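Input structure tokens:
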């Protein structure tokens, strides 16, 4: 079977901008202007007052958790269907992950289970817009206000999605994005936070920038005043931080991608629509439900596969047949985070025994996520040519038709 390749990711100014960075003296955000330019454009496009670029969508989560005031021993609630990073970032902040079950149709955090899992130790909620679909933000925000919890939106998979006419990202206190290789906007690795809260923006920048005292919500360049910075008596750091800074090369590529973000998002949405049409007549491929008032930017098309029960074909066999017919690989969903060895084996507990000694995550704590996760199929949507998406979705249509 001939492999049909996606066109290049470099749709616009990437190479031109990269060359400019290479030819400059400034390859770091401590002196350069590319992070600044990226942040400015990102905050404008995503309707937020502040944007801070960091080097991944995990460092953004970690910095956000510390910025909103999560302290050792606090509990952070996050959904049971998501990547591991929401939990590992929580552990890196010396806090305790608490897993919340999902809605069986939208696969996003279930507000009812969220409220049940709140305790006096709860401090923050990480709400994930899974596969590009916002969660039920009104209900989640209501609960957050009732219990005085901070809300971090993890929008790594969700660019420009809307919830009731509002762009997601500023509904919670702070929002995190990832620019990792597979994301709508990619520069290999990278991340961004947005917020309307000046204090939080400054905290994130300082946590991600070695705690340099002259970092602000708007300013990531620390060496602006050479006389001050080069003086031996100058004291630089007033906060414990990490180096989560984004290199200028990465910022330049991300900026060029951002210039094309509408097109990039649109391509995924249109590709997903082809695949949804292709499975319309089946009762064994059930796409993630998008309720009235929500929009999905389709990082991937999440589908519940009921073929085992309805047509007697296993998940693996259906995937194999699709690939053999010329379709692309279908990804399964990542394991429910607490069933990963890194959490089950509890080595992390040694970091802080007094916090984690009584923490365990037995099977059954989030039954809906546990039962749906093995059934999920993630169909590729990052086609940069809709003819390919159409061609691949036709292959799926023919395969599905065989089993109707
Ligand atoms: C929902 C979600 N959160 C966080 C991350 C972590 O982002 P990164 O890979 O940039 O660290 C990802 C990316 O894989 C993600 O999909």
């Amino acid at each position: 079977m001939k492999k049909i390749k996606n066109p290049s990711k470099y749709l616009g100014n990437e190479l031109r901008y990269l060359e400019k960075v290479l030819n400059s003296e400034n390859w770091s955000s401590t002196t350069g202007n590319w992070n600044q330019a990226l942040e400015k454009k990102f905050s404008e496009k995503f309707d937020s007052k502040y944007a801070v670029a960091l080097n991944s969508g995990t460092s953004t989560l970690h910095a956000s958790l510390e910025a909103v005031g999560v302290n050792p021993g606090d509990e952070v609630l996050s959904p049971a269907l998501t990547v591991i990073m929401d939990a590992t970032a929580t552990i890196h902040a010396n806090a305790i992950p608490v897993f919340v079950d999902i809605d069986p149709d939208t696969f996003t955090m279930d507000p009812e289970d969220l409220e049940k899992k709140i305790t006096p130790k709860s401090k923050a909620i990480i709400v994930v817009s899974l596969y590009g679909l916002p969660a039920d933000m009104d209900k989640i925000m209501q609960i957050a206000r009732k219990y005085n919890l901070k809300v971090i939106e993890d929008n790594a998979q969700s660019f420009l999605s809307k919830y009731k006419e509002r762009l997601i990202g500023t509904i919670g206190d702070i929002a995190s994005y990832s620019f990792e290789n597979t994301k709508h906007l990619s520069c290999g690795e990278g991340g961004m936070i947005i917020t309307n809260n000046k204090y939080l923006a400054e905290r994130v920048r300082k946590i991600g920038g070695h705690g340099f005292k002259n970092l602000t919500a708007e300013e990531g360049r620390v060496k602006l005043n050479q006389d001050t910075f080069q003086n031996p008596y100058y004291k630089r750091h007033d906060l414990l931080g990490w180096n989560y800074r984004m290199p200028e090369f990465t910022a330049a590529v991300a900026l060029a991608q951002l210039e094309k973000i509408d097109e990039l998002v649109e391509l995924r949405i249109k590709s997903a629509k082809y695949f949804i049409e292709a499975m319309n007549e089946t009762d064994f491929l059930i796409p993630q439900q998008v309720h009235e008032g929500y929009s999905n930017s389709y990082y991937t098309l999440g589908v519940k596969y009921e073929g085992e029960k309805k047509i007697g074909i296993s998940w693996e066999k259906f995937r194999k047949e699709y690939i053999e017919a010329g379709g692309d690989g279908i990804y399964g969903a990542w394991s429910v985070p607490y069933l990963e060895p890194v959490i089950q084996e509890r080595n992390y507990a040694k970091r802080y025994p007094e916090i984690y000694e009584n923490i365990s995550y037995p099977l059954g704590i989030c039954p809906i996520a546990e039962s749906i996760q093995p059934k999920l199929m993630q169909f590729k949507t990052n086609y940069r040519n809709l003819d390919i998406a159409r061609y691949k979705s036709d292959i799926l249509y023919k395969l599905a038709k065989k089993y109707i």
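Residues 14 and 253 are 5 Å apart (CA to CA). The longest strand covers residues 122-128.
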